[in-house]
Amino acid sequence: MRKHFGTDGIRGRANATITPELALRVGQAAGLAFRRGDHRHRVVIGKDTRLSGYMIENALVAGFTSVGMDTLLLGPMPTPAVAMLTRSMRADLGVMISASHNPFEDNGIKLFGPDGYKLSDDVERDIEALIDGDLSRRLAPASGLGRAKRVEGVHARYIEFAKRTLPRLLDFEGLRVVLDCANGAAYRVAPEALWELGAEVIAIGVEPNGFNINREVGSTAPEALIAKVRELRADIGIALDGDADRVIIVDEKGRLVDGDQLMAAIAKSWRDDGRLTQPGIVATVMSNLGLERYLDGLGLTLERTAVGDRYVLERMREGGYNLGGEQSGHVILSDFATTGDGLVAALQLLTVVKRSERPVSEVCHCFEPLPQVLKNVRYRSGRPLESEAVTTIIEAARERLGASGRLVVRASGTEPVIRVMGEGDDRELVVEVVDEIADAVTRSAA
Length: 446
Hints:
Largest sheet: 6 strands, mixed
Shape: globular
C-alpha cells in the first residue's frame, strides 16, 4: 500500500488532502528523484481549469526550484499534451495538475518521466520515501536555485501534433461535430484542431470559471451533448473529460458509444489496413465480454489488465501492442502517444467514419454488449474487502455466474469507493449477485 499515490497519481480534496505543503514536498521529492547528471534540469507543468490549480502550481514551482530545477509553465493543457511536451522539450520531468473527471473541489498531481510515460510503481515508491523524509540537507544552494517562466505557443504545438496523426490530405469537410470539452483543459485546443481540419464545430463546455469543470458536461455527464447532437442533427458528438485523456462518443442518433466500442471500431480498421503491431489489443478487467467475443470473431485477442490506463500501457509495451484502453474512454494509441489522448482517439475514429462514408451509428456499434451492472459503494474507513463475510459472498457469486459471466470487485485507486461489476448473459442473475455483494460491503463498512 502506498501512502500518497493511487492508480493515477496523487489525488484528493484540494486544500485538505492536496495541500500547498504536500505539493511543495512532491516538487522537491520528484525533482531530486529526477536530478540525473550535471546538465541544467527542467520540468514542464500543465494544469486543467480548477481554481485550486493556481495554488498547487505555485507550490510545485517552489518545490522544484528549491532543488535546482527550472520550471516551464504551460497553463491549461490536456494531460496527453503535457506528456508529449515533456519529450518534445527534452524535460527531465512532466507534471499535470488535475483530478481528471472529478468535481472541481478535488485536484491531483500526475507525473511523467522524460520519455513521456507515467511513472512506474517502484519510482512512485521512491518519491514517496523522499516526500516523507528529511530533505533539508538536499536543497540547492542559493546560487543553484531554479528559475520559472511561462511558455508561449504550446497550444499550437499540440494542435499540430494531433493533426499529424491523420493520413495526409484527409480532412473532415462536411462533418458537423458537437464537441464537449467539460469546461476543462482542452477548451481551447480541441475546438481549434477540429475546425482547422475542416469540420463544422459546435463547442459546449468551453467556458471554464474555475468551478464548473465536469459539472453537467464532459464524458461523465453526456446528457447535454446528447441533447445538442439531436437538436442540431449533428453527425457525431465528442465528449472529453476534465483533462482530456478520455473520450466518449455520441452517434448521430444520440446513442452513447463507450471506450469498448471505440476500440473495437479502430481495431477492425487497423487490422484491415495491416496497422496492428500484434493480433490483438489490451484492455482492463472492466471491458465488456462482448468486446472480447467480437475481437475473437476478427481473429484478434483481448489482453486484460488491472484497472488504470498506466497498467494497460505497461502491458502494451511489454507485448508490443499499439492499441489499448479502457471502457471509460481512455484509448491509448502508442504509435502516437504515451498516454490516453481523447482528442487523438476522436480524430482516429473520425478518420474511420470519413473513409468508410458510413454514419457513426454503423461504424461504432460493433457488438451488442452483454448485460453489465456496476455499483459503487462508498465507505469512510477500513478495508471492507478483507471482511470474511464479504469474501464468502463474492466467491459464491463467482460460482453462480460460472463461465458465462464475469465478476470484478475492487477498491478504487482514486477515492474511498468499492466498485462491484458483474456481467453475463442472464441480466437478472447479474443484478442479483451485484446487489448481494454491494449490500455485504455496505454492512461491512458501516
